[in-house]
Amino acid sequence: MAQKPSIPKGTRDFSPDEVVKRNYIMDTIKSCFTTYGFQPIETPSFENSETLMGKYGEEGDRLIFKILNSGDYLAKVDDSLYVAKDSLKMTGQISEKALRYDLTVPFARYVVQHQNEITFPFKRYQMQPVWRADRPQKGRFREFYQCDADVVGSNSLWQEVELVQLYDAVFSQLQLKGTTIKMNNRKVLSGIAEVIGEADKLIDFTVALDKLDKIGEEGVKKELREKGISESAIDKVQPLFTASGSASEKLNLLSTLLASSEVGRKGIEELSFIVNAVASLGLQSATLEIDVTLARGLNYYTGAIFEVSAPAGVAMGSIGGGGRYDDLTGIFGLKNMSGVGISFGLDRIYLVLEELNLFPETASAQTKVLFINFGEAEAMYAMNAITQLRLQGISAELYPDAAKMGKQMSYADKRNIPFAVLAGESEIASNTYTLKNMKTGEQDAMDLPSLVKKVQ
Question: In this predicted model, which residue has the larger pLDDT, 268 or 136?
Fold first, then answer.
């Protein structure tokens, strides 16, 4: 017996209806990207390993899918590595490429490689799949799409303001009200690490803090202790775990905590500018708030960082995130090129819209009109009408076989096709078509122009 086919864990097949709904989300995002002046690019699905490794921190590196070299990839491996079973050292010899982990690092590589062709500031958007060797769970997959918008070549904080507006514009068009755009600043986190005397452990500090919503306050403190951060330092950050109130109240808390840190004060200044500008301009449906524990575990962020939460009552992780990275292109040799960007989590947004029943009726993969097949002559008569309907942008099809009427009508029902057209001998003789509403059962005979008008 043949083995039942399957797909790898963390990947999915998509039905026609699912693809149409996903395209509805991507088309909405793409429309907003274009309105805000972003231009599309695409990069390869895999990169040289050296492009990706070391850019996401220790945890990120472990989640990168490596691609085995083609041919006899073991031939050049030193025998001592077999004996030692040193997989980390062996990986570098048998794998020179890897699937992209995100779109930001490939974008930085793109900017450096094409810098002489680009007009700066460069505003690009990119909507492509990425891969992570993560543990699959609800809303988290090993293959998923990212929808990114980035600006490189400008230090202006107006870019951050516009990206907040862009988030709001997309979620407003998707009718997704009640989203929260959380914001913090990596300079603030650097300042905190400095004033608690743990500046050399900034990465450990931010990685642990970034897990607050997953493992809770005690879990974060436990991890901080395991990383060698002192108890007195942990006590000093306690106000962060209990911070509440308005943006101004949180900024006051940070000002008190970071009074002795120059970099921390710079972060507070940047947060204040963005908050005040957004407050003056207003948002349609989202809210912007400061989250003093937001860290985002990616090492390349240097300024503002963002994370978007779904509306209250929806059990879902972040549906978007991003931030500023002042030196990302520097790792590829292009210095002093500041950038800032955000990403939309397509798969999670899909799950949220599905749970809240926010997909419009038009977001479905369905034919509008099915012509019943009565035979060769009738099929030709029907195809003439179908051709005219398609020229008008109306989705129409002919049942391919002259099967029993019941079978053809059942096909229309199962496909949720709203109209069926009967075009038999009598219709051909009178140059008409009988249009049947599949929901009400009503039938009307009409000429082709009237048919087009009726189903439009």
Answer: 268
